[in-house]
Design brief:
single chain; three-stranded antiparallel sheet; alpha+beta
């Protein structure tokens, strides 16, 4: 699906993080702290691969085998956390 001219102009104004967040839609959103971290790789909408409770993976913890993050995890503080810019 091609982007309209107005959408392309608007997309050029976005920084890389915001652009990916707009283009790559997440399967679900929660109030989990990891959503505010730049290392979260979220599950894409329509993806049938991960278990139902997984919101994504941390790209920093346990590299190269990413740590999967469940929506049931209660994380109040994380040593790998870096806020989105």
């Amino acid at each position: 699906m091609a982007m309209k001219k107005e959408e392309m102009i608007e997309a050029k104004k976005l920084n890389p993080v915001d652009f990916l967040a707009k283009v790559l839609e997440a399967e679900k959103h929660t109030d989990h702290i990891c959503w505010k971290c730049k290392y979260l790789k979220w599950v894409l909408k329509g993806s049938g691969f991960p278990p139902a409770d997984i919101i994504g993976w941390c790209k920093k913890i346990h590299w190269p085998h990413y740590w999967s993050i469940s929506e049931m995890d209660v994380v109040k503080k994380c040593y790998a956390f870096e806020a989105l810019k």
